[in-house]
TrEMBL record:
InterPro entries: AB_hydrolase, AB_hydrolase_1, AB_hydrolase_fold
Species: Pseudomonas fluvialis
Protein name in the entry: Pimeloyl-ACP methyl ester carboxylesterase
Domain AB hydrolase-1: from-to ranges: 49-299
Pfam families documented for this protein: Abhydrolase_1
Keywords from the named record: Signal
Amino acid sequence: MRWLLLIVALWGASAAIAASPCDTRAPTAMAELGEVRLAYQSIGRDSDPALLLVMGLGGQLIDWPDEVLGSLCQAGWRVIRFDNRDVGLSRLKGEEPKASLTYAAIRYRLGLPVEAPYHLRDMAADGLQLMDELGIEQFHLLGASMGGMIAQHMADLAPERVRSLTLLMTSSSAQGLPAPRAQLLELLARREAPNRQVALEQQADLLAALGSPQVPDDRAALLRQAARSYDRAHYPQGIQRQLLAVLAEPSRVELLNRLRVPTLVVHGTADPLLPVMHGVHVAAHIRGSELVLIPGLAHRFQSAFKRPLLQAVQAHLAAQEVQAPQLAGRLDGEAVWVQ
């Protein structure tokens, strides 16, 4: 009889874990939003304050570390992550737009206007429509790299809806800021691959180049990360169109000057794609913003920098909610940024 009771208890515990609102294995849902079909995942209770995560160029929702999402959810946040249009499982509806990245890159280097099938402001509208679809009026917003640029537009389009803004490793797209390393531009543009193995090697090369020189890379781990993304969704044409949207983006200085959203800007001193002055420039143009510079951080979420990243982000989020003591107490030391 004792064995039977034990089995019943274990079964009940397993069922409770599976039904946990903070289970990051929650199914991916699809939202039909006008010209786009957006894949997203919502983790947490509907009644908790919402935190929307916006990923960078070519990144998928799975590139946000599950450990971080689980910890944020346990601390009382409803965390929503999604695939930007044209990557992961999200797609444009209708005929696929034609675009020439080579021609656009030449115009960009010459300082000429670049045409793109869509713009970052359109991608910002996607995020706002997703929140409409979920019935969420107000939310906190966190964007990384290109996702930070999109988040800037979201905060400008709907300032009354964004309770706080966190910008990681991003830029104002202003003229005169330091350029990315030439090697990185070549790696970003290198999206054609004859087979899966070559594609994985190319992505691992890019991830390595985006990492901190202070942190030795495990090539096998980078290849596993590349394989996970490739096997979920491999769509280089979409990434090229996203890159065109970035190249076509004008300076957002005027936009930043008019933002009045509580804002945290976090940037690494070793960022090879968007050197540290990009983050400094963003913070300088958002009134009342807080700037945190992390020594050695580059342009990837690497576990070596988890503590300063999490301390900065969790303190900013906690300050905007009445449950700040709970959040501050639960986040520190629990979440882990993984490669």
